[in-house]
Amino acid sequence: MGLEGKRVAILAENHYQELELWYPLLRLREEGAEVVVVGTGSAKAYTGKYGYPVAADAAAKEVSADDFDAIVIPGGYAPDLLRRYKSILDLVREAFERGKVVAAICHAGWVLVSAGILKGRKATCFSGIKDDLINAGAAYLDQEVVVDGNLITSRVPDDLPAFCRAIIAALEG
Known about the structure:
single chain, Rossmann fold, 6 helices
């Protein structure tokens, strides 16, 4: 229970990748963190790619980066919707600028691109969007997890164990 007293936001919108939301949510809770599902505000609950729902605890416009120690962004097709909301981008950018952990997996790199936080950083993502990260100024690495300061990125659901270990280590450190 090394994460007691830590607060983590997991972002949600329709078409999220179920494993990439639920695995970190449950793993971080298991470590003692308080995990809050933060949605765009477009709904009270969101449906994953395979139909599994998640209820939002708050909307992005109702919270602040100061409320959390980390922001986790799951992939799927949700990131293409998440990045359309100024409140989501502001939350991610402010958390990053304040040195909070920002963790993104798979297509969640799109949110990092739109938040404008990748220039000069090392990152990974689903291979289909690597050009987007490169064009945003990131040095793309094809690794299961890339940690560059407070930025943690992974590629696909198979990388979730390494992704979660990196998030936990960053929050413990």
